[in-house]
Amino acid sequence: MADPTPDDGRDLLVAGGDAYTRGDIAGALRIFEDAARATTGEVRIGAIVNAASMADELGDHARSLSLYREALAAMPAHAPRLRPNALVNMSQALQHLGELDEAQAALEQARELLADSTDQGVLRVACLLSLTAVALHRQHWAYAAELAAESLDAARRFAPQLAGHPLMNLAATYFETGRRDLAVDFARQALAAFEAAGDRNAVAETQQNLAIMLVRLDRYDEAGEPLAASQRYFEQAGLGHRAGIGLKTMAFLAEGRDDLALAQELYGRGLAYFVASGAVLDAADLRMRLSTVAFKSGRHAECEELLAEAFDAYAERGLGLRCAQLDFWHASLWETAVADSPELLAQAVDLAVPAALAIDAVRYTLPNGNQRDQWNRQIADPAMRLAFRLAYLSGNGLLIADLIETQCAGTTLNIDRSETGRAARLPLEILDPPEDLAEHPGSAALQLGAALAGVAASAGLPVSPPPRLALAAEGRIALAPFIAAAEQRYGRVIRDSRVLTV
Asked: Is the pTM of this model over 0.85?
């Protein structure tokens, strides 16, 4: 939120901040809107920015974006404090609306404005955190880990009370790249940091994120308490977007108990929250879950429609890996039905093989050997196994042979990237904390989290994507049509331009 200034109206900004701290987000919005109407100059602009932030938390992302743009238009050309603050906050609304390119542009502009600032450390941390969030949305795991490490270092230097945020981003990064027990450790440290800092909103968000991780690890008993606590908070505070995420998780648990009616109801309520708030990507994720319920309930046409809507949402925003993961999901559903509907088999193969190739290619972008191994075993290998099974069921011996050849070919070290690329800088350098660190809330959690970050950065050398395999005896490139389909469908490079003859 914007810092209040000594002009008339300061008391309203302070009152709005107090309401926010108490968890009364709707009340804070009303106060900031009153302040915007009753004030002029920088105080009015600050009030609009704060109102936009509250609207975003309440799930009215379109209204939030409109307010941010109004504030930016009213600012002087050179507003060294207000402009980067508004840009960083606006990026949150843009992310919720799925406008990742605009969010990235706003954050890069803010980062440039903050480059020479010596007194806006908190905002620099916030900017880095938002850049990490965009990288996480795009599933650029190596860059997300780099940014999370940089923001952790910035928090230690400038704003230890914000330590929980980079710790939670590290948790998300490591969870999605397969280091899941370590991710849970990071999430618990983030929760401890927020509790020590007295940040009720962040505590609830972290409880929810931790619960989701535990659910995905099948640790349902551990997930129950943080999920229930966070859901009570979000429902009472009227935070529709976060309440929708909680409903999605509760629905997943109901689906796991085969209570499809309850799952359908909870997913439907969650989807309504996301649609109302314009949270496009969350709505797409939920449609994937709803598609499974529809499929299990025999509503196959509805399943296909939901998956198509989700795919379009991802594709329109350049999220190729999510498209590949959706296709893997789609083919997995079809695998359960091919015995009764053989005509689905060819379609399942056409989805599963390009998806597996694209998902497998991600591990070559990860910066250390441990992460690549985890991604392969936990994420890529299941996708490739599905491709093999469907190829076998289809009786396509040539495809099976090509899959075997490409899986056995391996890859090569990329020394240039190890010396100059982002990956080379990824091993997290945990610097000495400031001398007054112990005086800040959450300092103990920050120190432990920093130690975990150091342990997490196991050594490894970056590698290049695998080459294309030229089969000398047959005069063709193995899997050529599937590679082409994957690169066209997902907009990602999944094979190096080099050709290896075998």
From this structure: no
